[in-house]
Design goal:
The chain is 56% helix and 4% strand. It is mainly alpha-helical. The protein has a domain at 43-82. The chain has a two-stranded antiparallel sheet with strand order 1-2. Strand 1 (2-3) and strand 2 (9-10) form a beta hairpin. Helix 1 packs antiparallel against helix 2 (57-80). It is elongated and about 70 Å long.
Length: 102
């Protein structure tokens, strides 16, 4: 038992009730958030390089196909874990959302 201010007592549970599916979904959401952030950064970098003319046409095609495949896989993973795109956008308080809203 622990004591509250004012002398009240309350019991502390010896075990935590943890829902395995909720923990799995939360962890998947966190991992997918990081992957989505990196995907968006890679996409922006690719667009900059294309705009600057740094890439040959075959590399542009390859990069586009790779980014499209990654976005498709992200959609599949979000659906598998029952997550919406908004679920991956962590609110950073006064800094705003982690991911830009399209």
């Amino acid at each position: 038992m622990t004591s509250r201010p004012g002398g009240e007592s309350r019991s502390v549970p010896r075990r935590l009730d943890i829902d395995r599916e909720q923990v799995e979904r939360g962890l998947a959401g966190l991992v997918l958030t990081v992957v989505e952030l990196l995907r968006q950064l890679m996409e922006r970098q690719a667009m900059r390089r294309i705009d600057q003319g740094d890439l040959a046409d075959d590399k542009i095609e390859e990069l586009g196909l790779t980014l499209m495949a990654l976005e498709e896989r992200m959609t599949e993973l979000r659906e598998h874990f029952g997550l919406d795109p908004e679920d991956l956008n962590i609110d950073l308080g006064p800094l705003g959302p982690l991911l830009p809203r399209d």
